[in-house]
Amino acid sequence: MSKLYPLKFQSILKDKIWGGHKLELLLNKEISPLPNAGESWEISGVPGNVSVVSNGFLAGNSLSEIIEIYMGDLVGDKVFQKFGEEFPLLIKFIDANNVLSIQVHPDDELAKERHNSFGKTEMWYVMQADKGAQLISGFSKELNRDEYVSKLNSNELESIMASHEVAPGDVFFIPAGRVHAIGKGILLAEIQQTSDVTYRIYDFNRKDDKGNTRELHTDEALDAIDYTYVAEPKTKYTVDPNKVNEVVKCDYFTTNVLELDQTVKKDFYGLDSFLIYMCVEGKAEIVYNGDELETILMGETVLIPADLKEINIKPEGKARLIEVHL
Q: For labelling alongside 18, which of 95, 206, 226, 306 has CA 20 to 30 A away?
């Protein structure tokens, strides 16, 4: 029987110029005193922003501390061998009350060379969207670096960006190198590599409350951008109730969607990885070690340690969970 248990963490809330109040209104996050809470970092190993356990006997310990103690029992032997005490994923909820900057993230090679960091491949799962809300993913046509620079210099960048109207359940996979921006009126879950390296390339000429524009990284971005045109950047997937529905599988994470209206038994004997569950709809109980349980509500995130090999997930009515592992 595992001594470890499903772990919850204190949310790390971030004030953003584009943030709003949906994290509080829809996900029950305590955002006060932040005026514009844009992000809730649910599980983070980013230096200076390391998550702290909020439940059970490990409450008060940081994610780094418990990885150091439990190693492969917590994250999986294979994961520990590769990443050591660095947690490889950063898990967030994002409330875009206004449009985010158009940006790009470097890949592993460039990020290592410039920042001694991992690159940043990520994905978005749209939880709620105001009527007509759109996001940017990729370019609207085939172009090369010179054409891009020409549009950048003539302040016409928006004209070559691909905008997509979104609805709840939409998924966008954003590999490192793809230009992107979350649009106004969107609440989403984000799964990404552990990295805080962002190159901001256009910020819609907005100013902060002191009249300053935000720093841009247009030169750094040139080598990071993948100029390839992608016709269909939205991820297509189907959802069978009470089954694991794979949505994204890449070198950095696998993400599944579970739509539940009955208890589902799960075993992870072949996995050798931690699992993360983000509740994006409803409420469920995670039953482990026979009869112990942890509740997960919409807007909550739970880390299942690698040595917890069997759990039951019991929805209250209906629930929708995002499942993530390496």
A: 226
